[in-house]
Amino acid sequence: MTFQEAMSWLFEQLPMYQRQGAAAYKTDLDGTWAVLESMGRPDLKLPNVIHVAGTNGKGSVCQAVHNALVDQGFKVGLFTSPHLHDFRERMRVNGAMPSEDWVVDFVTVQRKEFERLDLKPSFFEWTFGMAMCYFSACQVDLVVLETGMGGRLDSTNIFPRPLVTAITNIGLDHTQFLGNDIRTIAKEKAGIIKDGCPVVVGRMRPEAQSVILGQALKQGAEFHYAPEAIADAKLGPNWPENRATAHQILTVLRSQTGWGDVDVPAQQKLSKAGHLGRWQWLQIPNKSPGILVDCAHNEDGLKRTVSALEELQYDALHLVLGVVGDKELEPVWKWLPARAHFHFCAANIPRALPVDELTAAAAKAGRAGKPYETVAHAVLGAQSQAAPSDLIVVLGSIFVAAEALRTFD
């Protein structure tokens, strides 16, 4: 089996939420436990875990915590999702992905075992189990886990006593699975809180915070607020607050968990390097105008990103936009300015909303633009039409962001 054949099997044979939507969603952890059992319970060899949930920001918080600990000489496993370029991005140790050979060997062995046991895991369940095996094989000191969706029923929620849990914020996203209101979604996210384990909470709505505080009190989990963020317009609307949450996680790790050797850098020194597609400026030599890639896709994310764009200096705004087919479009048009020049596209995944449908929906909402065959064509089309003093922004989904970044690889 080659690496490409292994990837084809993973993507095509296993139910994958990012590609198939609701059909791949599991409503319990039975599949996760079955996967871990078949793989020899690698989770039992990984007692030191930091677990992070939230609607937006959890990935950059995890990356920042990982980076800070790696800089201090710890060996740290980082589990995030989804990936932008390479499947192996989901599981890294001190920034390094597993080798292609390791993945091929793992898939070859475990695929046969799953067939023998007649297990039918989801893509996420399999990937999580693989990551735990990789971290165990690498003998990491600590694992930083980003939840995939929700919290209570997420595959990552199998560790009974994480060192620290954290919840970045709560917004309306994945409502068909998590609930139609902030309190219900907050309850799902709060499902990662464990008995006696400290929980760090980032900036969020009061109604969400009250739910999480109530769950923490029930669990006897000490509650820690993230400190005030040190704002910096150049860094975008989210990173300063996520940086403050990461800072508090490190502070709690040092003071509350017996990890007294951990240093806590100043907020401004924390870095999310390695976390792509979030308020990322593309450096294109001899090219203009500026291109900003941001994977904002839910109402909270779009609202904050568009508001931050108003602080930037430019003449005209060009938006490269693509969304998934199950996306509620009303909040999208609510926050995207009608005066922008739209360049519509669809990412190369089955879940993507066809570009003609997106263009038609936009027209009904008073947003005019041009459809393109691919994300790359849309980005290049925006470049060809924009003046040097204009701004191009790519947004709508992480899949669109990923394809836009590949355009300039």
Plain-language structure description:
- The protein is of the alpha/beta class and 409 residues long.
- The protein has 2 domains: 3-269, Mur-like, catalytic domain (UDP-N-acetylmuramoyl-L-alanine:D-glutamate ligase, 3-Layer(aba) Sandwich); 280-407, Protein-Tyrosine Phosphatase, Chain A, CATH 3.90.190.
- It has helices at residues 3-13, 17-20, 30-38, 58-71, 100-117, 123-138, 175-178, 182-189, 206-219, 239-256, 299-309, 330-335, 355-364, 375-385, 398-407, and strands spanning 49-53, 76-79, 91-93, 142-146, 164-167, 199-201, 223-225, 280-281, 290-293, 317-321, 341-344, 369-371, 391-395.
- The chain has a 7-stranded mixed sheet with strand order 3-2-4-1-5-6-7, with helices on both faces. The chain has a 6-stranded mixed sheet with strand order 8-9-13-10-11-12, with helices on both faces.
- Helix 4 packs across helix 10 and helix 8 (182-189) packs parallel to helix 9 (206-219).
- The protein is globular.
